[in-house]
Amino acid sequence: MTFGLKRSSGALDAQDPGLPDESDAGTAQGAARDAAAKPREAAAALPSTEHMIRSEAFRVIRASVFSSMNVSAAVLKTRDEVRDGVAQIVADLVERERMNLTLAEQVLMVDELLNDMFGVGPIEPLLADDTVTDILVNGPDHVYVERHGRLELTPVKFRDNAHVVNIAQRIASAIGRRVDESSPMVDARLADGSRVNVVLPPLAVHGACIAIRKFSRRNITLARMAQQANMSNEMARVLKIAATSRLNILISGGTGSGKTTLLNAMSHFIDERERVITIEDAAELQLQQPHVVSLETRPDNSEGTGGVTQRELVRNALRMRPDRIILGETRGAEAFDVLQAMNTGHDGSMTTIHANSPRDAISRLESMVMMANGNLPLVSIRRQIASAVHMIVQVERMRDGVRRVTRISEIAGMEGDVITTQDLFVFRYDTTTYNDEVKGVFECLSIRPVCAGRAAYYGLEEALMEAIRQ
């Protein structure tokens, strides 16, 4: 039984110009070339993970490891505590069966076995990579990641579709949810807060699909977003004042545009003395305040009962004496109850919504309220929105992969039957340039904000007007 190494087409040979020849072997230049060649030779000598996890040798070793140890007891220990035992089993088996495996291959096998036991299998290294923001598994053979806003295919492979399903079921069961043929879709989360969506066959035609939105390990703040050119410094100051002044804020944008990240950043300015209740489908908000109650929806059980929706959680949250209610995403009939909460003393509430512009966000909100109460006149719905929502922040992932706050708008009131808005800031991109990088400026429209009176109540009117004038 063998597990040979495959040398890449770019492997070094005698004709490689990076290798020293006899004429310069003794010179400093030759020594430098020697040093440069060693990392490339080491990289060429690394075993292929894809061939390894699908080899007969790995199948035999994996079966032997899992049959010779108490896995249920092992998972109660730490990864480092189990590593030595697994490594010893692998080494003994390789010696007993006389497998042609190098030490590097054995180490790689031990890592893969530990990833299966404690992590999420072959994609565990991708979770540890801080440059990766999304991991997309399309069956066992295609694993994509997003880096810097761009998708790229990785060499990571699973053993087979059953391996992908097994990882998906482990993720779901960790938070008390199930995913199988009878319930082939689930929203879940990892221990670090990363959001996970799973779709299994027969709904996923070409194999089980897993989509992971990684939770950033860095503490993203408005100041850092301004440094990264996601917004201007003045926009960051206005958003800080808006959160501190307890404005009701709607964050609008497309999928993957950074709505939740911005919501997390704005939540830093909530007073520590306030009681905050968060409501989400899969808990991913990471608020820093000491008095935070996190609520999470629950899907129906196998009998089709027992589910708890966001709307029910919003209604219950009103009985929990909240100062602010933060809804991870408004997507249905709960919009009616969110507006009721904003209109009944729960100022400073925030939520996100999928929409392409502030005006679209208002239209979507109207439609959602009508889903909850179809008998309510449209003008009445609009009056509720105009009195409940103070500010709409539009975010967008642009074609260069950079997330930007493209518009900060206020709801100014009603004119007849129409909700009126005014823009405080707009991102205007340069239409004369079209390349990999989107160029433009964050423009302040220097309009006196409607919320200036509310900012004055918190002693922030002067700071607000200074940010608007600059």
TrEMBL record:
The identity of this protein, by name, is: CpaF family protein
Q: Do you know which Gene3D superfamilies this protein is assigned to?
A: 3.30.450.380, P-loop containing nucleotide triphosphate hydrolases
State the residue spans of region: Disordered: 1-48
- Which species does the entry assign this protein to? Paraburkholderia pallida
* Stored Pfam families: T2SSE
Against SUPFAM superfamilies, the record matches this protein to: P-loop containing nucleoside triphosphate hydrolases
**What Gene Ontology molecular-function terms does this entry list?**
ATP hydrolysis activity
In this protein, which residues make up the domain named AAA+ ATPase?
245-399
Locate the compositionally biased regions of type Low complexity.
25-34
The record's comment on protein family reads:
Belongs to the GSP E family.
